[in-house]
Amino acid sequence: MWTARASARTAALLLCVLCYLLAGAAVFDALESEAESGRRRLLAQKRGEFRRRFGFSAEDYRELERLARQAEPHRAGRQWRFAGSFYFAITVITTIGYGHTVPGTDSGKVFCMFYALLGIPLTLVTFQSLGERLNALVRCLLLGAKRCLGLRRPHVSTENMVVAGLLACAATLALGAATFSHFEGWSFFHAYYYCFITLTTIGFGDFVALQSEEALQRTPPYVAFSFLYILLGLTVIGAFLNLVVLRFLAASAEGPQRAARLAGSLHRAAPESHARPRGGDAGPAGSICSSCRRIRQLERCARDNLGFSPPSSPVAVCGSRADRPRARSI
């Protein structure tokens, strides 16, 4: 029964993702298509004016465009000195991948692939551990705040943690936006957009810090801030996303909880003299055990990985009762 339910849930999730993609495509089409057509018309007009003014052929103009694209990354100075290489390494192991700088040699491309194979899992584990410690710290702060408010039995719920994480994310993005808008000359909105795209590891590359006026060599304090901001910001965003995932998992378990509570009621109403079903998962007791294992896994995930313990669910209590040895009838 639970296998069929899990398959139906997976199919429903796939359908939701497909619908979400279709809706996103429709919205982006409506928002960007006309603007793109306008930019293409303007570019064609400027291209024609440029060719007429300087007498370039179509081939000459294409060569000039190619050279301009190749020269773009070098506005920041020497990209493959230590500071620029460190920046590139960050974008590799965090999977941000702006695309502003890429290896130019075959040996560099080969090393990049092997470097990513080891670096990406190592980075994921590290940020997971940092996120656990951060969530534990936030939980302690929330407990202290509730005690200061005079609550006798303060408890930090998943919703409390999600709200606190959302506020921490907003503050982190705002701090980065204020700093990058000052140093890069961007508007606050564009700087906020850059921080969001960076810390969610989307990394379009349309806005990239440290890419003007040889910033990598001339402004060491700003370079250090940029590196630290990316690493610490990824920790904050990752911890928050872990909380959101846990909340979705808990919500997806509510259906099995209700079914297990009903099965548990039927099981407790059965006469004590009836023989207990054998085979583990047969009958209502098996349904209870299956659901209880699912809920206990979620609670263990919250306690071990996210630094706080959710309240005991009725199913867990029911499961603990169902697992107790029963006195044999005489």
UniProtKB/TrEMBL annotation:
GO CC annotations? plasma membrane
Compartment(s) where it occurs, according to its Swiss-Prot or TrEMBL record: Membrane
Give the signal peptide range: 1-25
Kindly report the protein's main subcellular placement as a broad class: membrane
According to its UniProt entry, the protein's GO biological process terms are: stabilization of membrane potential
Keywords on this record? Ion channel, Ion transport, Membrane, Potassium, Potassium channel, Potassium transport, Signal, Transmembrane, Transmembrane helix, Transport
**Membrane association type:** Multi-pass membrane protein
Domain spans labelled Potassium channel: 78-134, 170-245
Q: In which domain of life is the source organism classified?
A: Eukaryota
Q: What residue intervals traverse the membrane?
A: 80-98, 110-130, 161-180, 192-210, 222-249
Q: What is a single molecular function from GO for this protein?
A: outward rectifier potassium channel activity
UniProt family annotation? Belongs to the two pore domain potassium channel (TC 1.A.1.8) family.
Supply the PANTHER family for this chain: POTASSIUM CHANNEL SUBFAMILY K MEMBER 15, POTASSIUM CHANNEL, SUBFAMILY K
Q: What is this protein called?
A: Potassium channel domain-containing protein
What organism is listed for this UniProt entry?
A: Marmota monax (Woodchuck)
